[in-house]
Design brief:
- This is Lipoprotein.
- Keywords: Signal.
- It comes from Sphingomonas prati.
- The chain has 285 residues and is mainly α.
- The protein has a domain of 154 residues.
- It has eleven helices and no strands.
């Protein structure tokens, strides 16, 4: 066999193996290549909606380890509980309007008459506590506390549930003897407070859902972080003139922050004058 013939046969073998590689017929095989697949897009949930009737911003009391909201009604003495019940029912008789308002007013005035001595004794002991702890400003401290109590029970979103609870409590109070009123108040206050803590829990749940939803929006978060902080607006140009003491004296001071909810005066102003004259027993002592 000539050298040329051997080269021809060797070339033919190489061509045959090359052709068979395409058919995986040769001993040399290619390893499979793993291809990373992009995850399928997951449709995100819609943005949580604020529960009906709740404001976008609401001051919610802190909670203790048991999940109880530390409201103005938290950790009270029995005398304070009795007086807070009276205050809550006072707000109810002034603010709960509707077909049953006359019954609420009648039951409340009857309660004040029946429990006059009990409430007066509780009030005296509550006032003594403020005298003992408040020093020379004890009266201001007591007035501020009373304002907070009335504002707490005037939270608008809780009004329907509160008025229903107040109506039930007043109905049950018709048969409560004076000696049993303090015990009755211990059970009544949580019922009167429940509509308000329900509002807090609903709002807290909304805020948690909103925070979780916002955490799934990295694009929106990155965009907010990338946006430059706007520069403060330049004050309008004013014609140059000397500043006198008279001009400085006319600058109004910064107003003090207002209470978030209506005060007692506003609650009383809701009533027609004739009604107010007929509800002297419902006035704050």
């Amino acid at each position: 066999m000539t050298r040329t013939t051997k080269l021809q046969r060797y070339g033919a073998a190489l061509l045959g193996c090359t052709a068979m590689l395409a058919l995986d017929g040769c001993a040399v095989q290619k390893a499979p290549v793993a291809v990373a697949m992009a995850p399928a897009p997951v449709a995100d949930l819609p943005r949580p909606v604020l529960p009906a009737g709740l404001p976008e911003k609401l001051n919610v009391p802190i909670q203790d380890a048991a999940g109880t909201y530390r409201t103005i009604n938290y950790a009270l003495s029995p005398d304070q509980v009795a007086w807070h019940v009276r205050s809550a029912l006072n707000v109810a008789v002034l603010s709960c309007r509707g077909p049953g308002e006359a019954v609420i007013a009648a039951d409340y005035n009857a309660l004040l008459k029946r429990q006059k001595a009990t409430l007066a004794a509780a009030y005296d002991r509550v006032q003594a506590q403020f005298r003992q702890t408040g020093g020379a400003t004890w009266q201001s401290a007591q007035d501020a506390h009373s304002t907070r109590v009335y504002n707490f029970f005037a939270l608008p979103p809780a009004k329907p549930g509160f008025c229903a609870a107040a109506t039930e409590v007043l109905t049950e109070s018709r048969t409560v003897e004076p000696v049993a009123f303090v015990t009755f108040a211990q059970g009544a206050l949580p019922r009167l407070e429940a509509p308000f803590t329900d509002v807090y829990r609903s709002y807290d749940g909304y805020r948690r859902e909103l925070a979780a939803w916002e955490a799934r929006q990295p694009g929106a978060t990155m965009l907010a972080q990338a946006l430059p902080t706007p520069a403060p607006a330049a004050p309008p140009a004013v014609a140059a003139k000397p500043v006198t003491r008279a001009v400085v004296a006319r600058v109004a001071p910064t107003p003090a922050p207002r209470l978030e909810y209506v005060g007692l005066e506003t609650l009383i102003d809701w009533q027609p004058m004739a009604v107010r004259r007929n509800q002297q027993l419902a006035a704050i002592r």
